[in-house]
Hints:
With 149 residues, the protein is mostly beta strands. It has helices at 24-32, 58-63, 128-131; strands spanning 3-7, 15-22, 41-47, 55-56, 70-74, 84-96, 104-113, 124-126, 135-139, 144-148.
Amino acid sequence: MPHFTLALDPARGPIINAVIAVSEGRRDALTAANQPIPLPQFVRALIDTGASFTSVDPSILANLGLTPTGTMDVVTPSTGQNVHTTDTYDVDFAMGANPQDVILFVPNLRIAAAELFLMQGIHVLVGRDVLARCLFAYNGATQTFTLAY
């Protein structure tokens, strides 16, 4: 099973490079309409085993010119027991050890828009929807984490 191990960020935890791009269906529609295809967005992502699904900051989605494909009800620590409805989008998602390496590719992933921690340089929370495709090991003793896919 291919894998890589990275150091934990001392302040933020398991941070990984990722790429968000328009989905294949959106690329096909833009090509058919003779419209330009937005460039993929290279982002920093926090692996979050407490998140049911992957969330992306709205600024990244705006850079891709995406429109919502639906909505999703979510509950977060900041909303308490109150349900918050957020827009969902379909994107192609990839992550790897280095920005130029695509290790794990997830096409047509339904993600939620969520204002994240841009001041901390985090654009994406990688949730269990993506982690279900790999093995994630958090090693606090060595301050590393490993992803196998």
